[in-house]
Amino acid sequence: MKFDLSCKDVTHLLLDAEDRTLSLRERLAVRFHLAICTLCPPFERQLRFMRSAMGRWKAYAEHEPPEA
Amino acid sequence: MSDFARQVQALRPQLLRFAHAQLRNDAWAEDAVSETLLAALERPQAFGGLSQLKTWLVGILKHKVVDQLRRHTREATLLSDDDGQDIDDLLFAADGHWREAPRDWGDPEHALREHEFFEVLQACVQHLPGVQGRVFMMREWLELDTGEICKELAITPTNLWVLLHRARLRLRVCLQQDWFETHSTA
């Protein structure tokens, strides 16, 4: 895997990471990009936020199923 | 009617909403809930009273929802009801750079403390188009792994990844518009 990933490549890998474990090389390439890019880190934080939001919502809704 | 049956019956509307959110089909949701209620009424002794009745029923319902998906695999897998919109083109220019910089969403705990936030989140999930919404719910709520989802819906891994990516990106746009842009304090 090449190291100079575009923001688009990184976005795909970050999305993949929600549902699979990235390879070592992929993780390294993503970290490298995030360290030098100013636009992608907020995107990563947004994904992390959505993950915790889904977890919280699920716990909340199973206790109290959501209103339609 | 026994107290137990009455309590089970009283939870029916909530179970129906839960099933509908995942199946997006009135008839399938009805069936999943009916099977759940029947299972509960036939084996009330299985409810140990250790968890809340609602929690116990939701546990049964999850299995019934998966059964419905399995039963209706063909219909559920019509990829044609995916919008097919190319999100990449919306987000990125030809050179692979962001068209618009992702915003900083601030302190997540702030939003997660708000009851209203979860209503927005739920509305956003419910507005995910057909198959996208379905695979997203299978993944997030039913906690099926990607291999299981491919098997249940008879779709290829490539299709599944595309659907999951689109679902998450769409959810992101929806939260941006319907929550973060209207709640600037977050």
What this model shows, in words?
Chain A has helices spanning 7-16, 24-36, 40-63. By secondary structure, chain A is mainly alpha-helical. Chain A has one domain (7-63). In chain A, α1 packs across α2 and α1 packs parallel to α3. The longest helix of chain A is centred in the C-terminal third of the chain and has 24 residues, at 40-63. The model of chain A has no long low-confidence stretch (mean pLDDT 86). Chain B has 186 residues and is mostly helical. Chain B folds into two domains: 3-71, Orthogonal Bundle (Rna Polymerase Sigma Factor, Chain: A), CATH 1.10.1740; 77-180, Winged helix-like DNA-binding domain superfamily/Winged helix DNA-binding domain (Arc Repressor Mutant, subunit A, Orthogonal Bundle), CATH 1.10.10.10. Chain B contains eleven helices and no strands. Chain B has helices at 3-10, 12-23, 26-42, 53-71, 73-76, 87-91, 108-112, 115-126, 130-140, 146-153, 157-180. The longest helix of chain B is centred in the last third of the chain and has 24 residues, at 157-180. Chain B starts with a helix and ends in a 6-residue tail after the last helix.
Total domain count of chain B:
2
Mean pLDDT of chain A: 86
Main β sheet profile of chain A:
none
Low-confidence stretches of chain B: none
Helix-strand sequence of chain B: HHHHHHHHHHH
Shape of chain B: globular
Number of β-strand runs of chain B = 0
CATH secondary-structure class of the largest domain in chain B: Mainly Alpha
Helix content of chain B: 55-70%
Gyration radius of chain A, rounded = 15 Å
Radius of gyration of chain B: 19 Å
Q: What is the number of strand segments of chain A?
A: 0
